[in-house]
Amino acid sequence: MKDNQLLKYILKRIGISIVILFFVALIIYTLMRCLPTSYIEAVALQKSMQPNSKSFEEWMEQLTKMYNMDKGIVEGYFAWLGNVFRGEFGDSWKWTMPVTEKFNNVVWVSFVMGAIALFFEVIIAIPLGVIAATKQYSKADYTISIVALAGISLPTFFFASLMKLVFAVKLGWFDLYGLVGRDYEYLSPAGQLLDKANHLVLPIIVLVVISMGSLMRHTRTNMLEVLNADYIRTARAKGLSERTVIYKHAFRNTLIPLVTILGGSLPGLFSGALITETLFSIPGIGYTSYHSMVSGDIPFSMFYLVFMAAMTLLGNLITDILYAVVDPRVRVS
Q: Do residues 279 and 301 share a domain?
């Protein structure tokens, strides 16, 4: 009975997510069609200036028809949706290659950066949040709270610039820009891997420091709430050791609210870090998507934004399922 109830709950959430994704994609397509810049106009102007070429108006008519821009928004959206169902996302207007190929070329750099940053964020922020809660109003609590507040308040561009000034300019330990060094092609496979890793150290440090403050604060708040619960006082009254009370009883219940935060981190692994990637000239998905949107590259921008919407819904779905598994009351209609 419980398994059937859980299955119905999951299927219901999947159905709702599909409906939401449909309308989100429609909104995104509408916004893309209303962009103030037009890459088609730039291409038509460039082609019309070539010797013995057609006029600007003729090129505009041809390119507009080629990319279904001559149709209305709703009609154009369903034409785009039909192509999506056939696995055809078109060619990027700016990068002059299939959208999926360009996306695959750049997304994994951002994914590796995001995954490593999330790993260090979790193993640093959660233990520090627990320590701050268990030693409330102590020097450790104040120190951790100051670090968390600094991480939340620091602007990304300022901290990234500071890291580059200290570790790249003053100390010379890392390169200022790029994903690979000048001698990358002459290195062995292991050397190439180390070269890329060396270029990702500073961007990952920036992502960890900027992101972990919020997780530390949430962990501390949730832990303090759990430590003041009646069942924790009962466990202490039974004579259980403080370590058992904290890490076996309190910490397990503290993790339940954190599921929401960690589930919401899934899209961040694929969205890239626009400011960090731009400052360090890392050719990731954040950097690429920004330049695609600025240039009016509708095919790539549509694919990226809809993909991110799908990842966001998937993260929420995973969170809902984990809640339903942990707390059966969630499945009650």
A: no
